[in-house]
């Protein structure tokens, strides 16, 4: 059915190496559709068949993909309120986006006017959001914890497949070695240190975790 031009636009964001094909995203989009919302299941760069066109991979600190989606929705439906939701890694990205946009608003940046971020975003939900990235990620790689036994290997394997698929493009980044030794990358933090820290301009993992920490970001969102 045709929706009014001011129908809310709902943008849903997935977790690590996920996409619009996953159950949580499908459920959220279906729920929004029942409410009469225009629903967008956003696939991050390089995920779920989306090509990676630059050496900068997605990460918890990368708000560009969400910003592009929000700007496109705002341009096409200027009268519509925009709602954001994400789970797991997606919560970091949305939190980063909202904090960055609110900072622009408060400092007189180009998007700083009304509706919170100034881009029509009126609400956001962060589902299964780790408040402390450092302790959360440490738990994921601790072999003495259930999460370390189950999730670390599975997530690391997914990240390995992602970077094998996009290795040619990623290797074009000046700070990433041409011959990336994937066999040496065994944990989530190995991948973050070897690739995300380098391609996103952080000095180390501590700086990266501090930047994406919801404990830092949430107070910045008004």
Describe the model.
This protein has 222 residues and is α/β, with parallel strands linked by helices. It folds into 2 domains: 9-131 and 212-220, Alpha/Beta hydrolase fold, catalytic domain (Rossmann fold, 3-Layer(aba) Sandwich); 133-211, no CATH class. The chain is built from 9 helices and 4 strands. The chain has helices at residues 23-34, 64-76, 89-106, 133-141, 146-165, 167-170, 188-199, 205-212, 214-217; strands spanning 9-13, 38-42, 82-87, 121-127. The two termini are 35 Å apart. Mean pLDDT is 84; it is low at 110-117. Belongs to the AB hydrolase superfamily. AB hydrolase 4 family. InterPro entries: AB_hydrolase_1, AB_hydrolase_4_sf, AB_hydrolase_fold, ABHD4. This is AB hydrolase-1 domain-containing protein.
Q: Keywords for this structure?
A:
single chain; 222 residues; alpha/beta; Rossmann fold; four-stranded parallel beta sheet; 45% helix; 10% strand; globular
Total separate domains: 2
Output the CATH homologous superfamily of the largest domain: Alpha/Beta hydrolase fold, catalytic domain
Number of helices: 9
Structural class: alpha/beta
Instruction: Tell me the strand order in the biggest sheet.
Output: 2-1-3-4
Which ranges are low-confidence, i.e. pLDDT below 50, for 5 or more consecutive residues? Answer: 110-117
Write the CATH architecture name of the largest domain.
Answer: 3-Layer(aba) Sandwich
Please write the CATH class name of the largest domain.
Alpha Beta
Average pLDDT: 84
Work out the helicity level: 40-55%
Which percent band covers the strand fraction?
5-15%
Order of helices and strands: EHEHEHEHHHHHH
How many individual β-strands? Answer: 4
């Amino acid at each position: 059915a045709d929706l009014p031009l001011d129908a809310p636009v709902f943008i849903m964001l997935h977790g690590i190496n996920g996409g619009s094909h996953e159950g949580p995203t499908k459920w959220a989009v279906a729920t929004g559709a029942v409410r009469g919302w225009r629903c967008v299941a956003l696939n991050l760069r390089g995920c779920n068949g989306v090509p990676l066109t630059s050496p900068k991979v997605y990460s918890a600190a990368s708000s560009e993909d969400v910003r592009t989606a929000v700007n496109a929705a705002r341009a096409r439906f200027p009268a519509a309120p925009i709602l954001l939701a994400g789970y797991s890694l997606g919560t970091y990205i949305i939190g980063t986006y909202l904090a960055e946009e609110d900072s622009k608003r408060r400092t007189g940046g180009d998007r700083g006017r009304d509706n919170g971020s100034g881009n029509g975003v009126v609400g956001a939900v962060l589902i299964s959001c780790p408040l402390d990235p450092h302790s959360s990620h440490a738990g994921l790689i601790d072999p003495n914890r259930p999460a370390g036994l189950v999730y670390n290997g599975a997530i690391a394997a997914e990240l390995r497949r992602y970077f094998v698929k996009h290795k040619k493009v990623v290797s074009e980044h000046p700070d990433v070695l041409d011959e990336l030794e994937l066999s040496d990358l065994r944990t989530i933090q190995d991948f973050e240190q070897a690739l995300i820290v380098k391609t996103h301009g952080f000095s180390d993992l501590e700086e990266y975790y501090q930047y994406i920490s919801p404990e830092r970001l949430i107070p910045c969102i008004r």
